[in-house]
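Fold this sequence, please.
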Amino acid sequence: MTAAPAGRADARRNRELVLRTAARVFTEEGTGASLGRIARRAGVGAGTVYRHFPSKEILIEAVLAEHVEEMVAAAGRWRARAAPGDALFGFLLEAIDRSAGRRPVCDALSEDHGTPRRSRSARRRPEERSRTRCSTPGRR
């Protein structure tokens, strides 16, 4: 499960409820489903959805992160209980089974929605960034 923020127990439950509901709605209807539709299906108000996930893109990312965490946990379970070849085969079968119907979320991930680009500083190599920081007037 994705790490739920600290806070009230009911807020954590609502966040998980919205996340699980969104995964089902995206699987059934695609990522075109509105946040309002997800709120209605979850039985919470739209404000609850927006409080935890301010945009659909953030919700889609959270749904995908949850899926990846489930796959990591599954890989660990298979590794612990089977020989390497059997574990790999078992994990791959489970991954295929768990991923069925997740195509809309995966498609949304592969599309470019104008996500923020790395800053010029982040594109420079680490040694160039440290050289710039160290050459700042007043710093040695």
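The mean pLDDT is 79. The first helix runs from residue 9 to 29.
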